[in-house]
Write a structure and sequence with these properties.
The protein is an alpha+beta fold. The strands form 2 sheets. A 3-stranded antiparallel beta sheet has the order 3-5-4. The longest helix is centred in the middle third of the chain and has 31 residues. It is globular. The chain starts with a strand and ends in a 5-residue tail after the last helix.
């Protein structure tokens, strides 16, 4: 396996230790499921912890490849870059909420709200980078990703001209940086 620039594996024909990688994916999925179960249930009785562990085991056994399909050496780097992207995204969501609040309570609201559908093309190649950008746009209030295709063409609905002008902007650069892609 070779890790490409975006942190995901490509098979180069050499044998790999897929059993270890699968087990590692299973283990991380199990731990995440069990911790989620503990946080959401708030129960610490031995029987309930055991049942939560069994449930988490079965979920991890059947679905470990959905969360962590390939555990390669570059995966951790992408993971930590994504974690560092999250505070910036949350800040953008907060700023967009205040912008929508301003639009909603402004006396000239009908004049300020000017819906647009904009189309732009990105150089993002990996499906996960395209999906991350589409979801980030949709999570930001005032914008909704209408379509995003494999070629990196996005159609986005924006509530006003200011929101439309900001796209794709910094968000595209940050997502490309997370996945190690050129823009």
């Amino acid at each position: 396996m070779i890790v490409s620039g975006n942190g995901f594996a490509k098979n180069d024909g050499k044998p790999t230790s897929t059993c270890f990688k699968s087990f590692f994916s299973f283990l991380i999925t199990f731990i995440l499921m069990f911790l989620t179960w503990i946080v959401l249930s708030g129960k610490f009785d031995p029987l309930l912890l055991w049942l939560g562990g069994i449930s988490s085991f079965f979920v991890a056994y059947y679905f470990y490849d959905l969360l962590f399909p390939v555990m390669e050496s570059g995966y951790g780097k992408v993971f930590f870059r994504f974690i560092s992207y999250m505070p910036w995204l949350i800040w953008e969501i907060i700023k967009a909420n205040f912008h929508l609040l301003y639009l909603t309570f402004h006396p000239r609201m009908k004049e300020l709200i000017d819906p647009h559908i904009i189309t732009f093309k990105t150089n993002l190649k990996s499906d996960i980078a395209i999906t991350t950008l589409a979801n980030s746009i949709t999570l930001t209030p005032g914008t909704i990703t209408v379509t995003a295709d494999n070629d990196g063409v996005f159609r986005v609905h924006a509530i006003d001209r200011e929101s439309a002008d900001a796209l794709p902007g910094t968000m595209l650069k940050k997502v490309a940086k997370v996945f190690g892609e050129e823009i």
